[in-house]
Amino acid sequence: MIKLTENKFDTQRLHAGYDPKEHLNSPLPPIYQTAAFALGDTDEAEKVAEGSKEGFTYSRVANPTVRAFENRIAALDGGIDAVAVGSGMAAVSYALLSVAEGGGRIIAPTNLYGASIDAFQSIFPKFGIHVDFVDDINDFEAVKAAIKTDTKAVFVESVANPSTDIADIEQLATIAHQAGIPLIVDNTFPTPYLLRPFDFGADIDVYSSTKAINGHGNVVSGIIVDHGKFDWHNGRFPQFTENEFTLETEAGKPVILVARWCGGLYFPGSD
Ligand SMILES: *Cc1c(COP(=O)(O)O)cnc(C)c1O
């Protein structure tokens, strides 16, 4: 995988996270339109399943086309990795349902994208997640006062859609980190071309890649990017540090599937 972090944005935009040599020298990422991948033989399958060898098994877990997209956006955004999902609302929901898994509170402004407001008001409570709204997210005293022991994240839009209000990411990240919680930023509106929230301390970025990142208006999609800096081991987020379940191969070797921060599953060593 080519990270090309030393290159300029326009070069990364075309090349980051994709190596033509791994794809029959195709300069553009081919569309791998397949659900599953042939693993050759059982020895090979075992290596991929236990994570000692990189490989694709099933497109819900990972797919080379989607992987190129994830790698590229992670590079452009300055994150360590990314997970692509089916829409921007899926990205918002995955990120927040994962951090507040099992119940908890999220702090968010009232001037969000309408579908996010709808989800926070009418769907999240059904999963035991309560959103504490603040009218002005840059009223730092109000944000501090809203933080409770079961608050799991501060969620903002860097540039709100449609009000274009701008969140002070640096101050909000400091306040969130003092409380041991992450700052999750919906950076759909500016895209990493105009603003990289990680440069100002954000922990997770979410995007509707239906919008400006896509640029073509021909696909609905979303992506979640991890800055890789937040300490998920601080006791508030056991879901990210506990093993969900363990499978064993016939030879009795454990194949551990662990919870990934986005709520998906991965085979250790696959990335
Ligand atoms: C459009 C949008 C979303 C939702 O994205 P979809 O791809 O339509 O699900 C979320 N946040 C912001 C800021 C948006 O503009």
UniProtKB/TrEMBL annotation:
Keyword Transferase: yes
GO biological process: cysteine biosynthetic process from serine; L-homocysteine biosynthetic process; transsulfuration
Catalytic activity: L-homocysteine + H2O = 2-oxobutanoate + hydrogen sulfide + NH4(+) + H(+); L-methionine + H2O = methanethiol + 2-oxobutanoate + NH4(+)
Coiled-coil intervals, chain numbering: none
Any single GO CC term annotated in Swiss-Prot or TrEMBL for this entry: cytoplasm
Domain of life, source organism: Bacteria
UniProt keyword terms in alphabetical order: Pyridoxal phosphate, Transferase
Enzyme class: lyase
Recorded GO MF terms: cysteine synthase activity; homocysteine desulfhydrase activity; methionine gamma-lyase activity; O-acetylhomoserine aminocarboxypropyltransferase activity; pyridoxal phosphate binding
Annotated EC: 4.4.1.2
Keyword Transferase: yes
Pfam families (alphabetical): Cys_Met_Meta_PP
Required cofactor names: pyridoxal 5'-phosphate
Family named by the database record: Belongs to the trans-sulfuration enzymes family.
Name of the featured protein: homocysteine desulfhydrase
Source organism of the structure: Lentilactobacillus kisonensis F0435
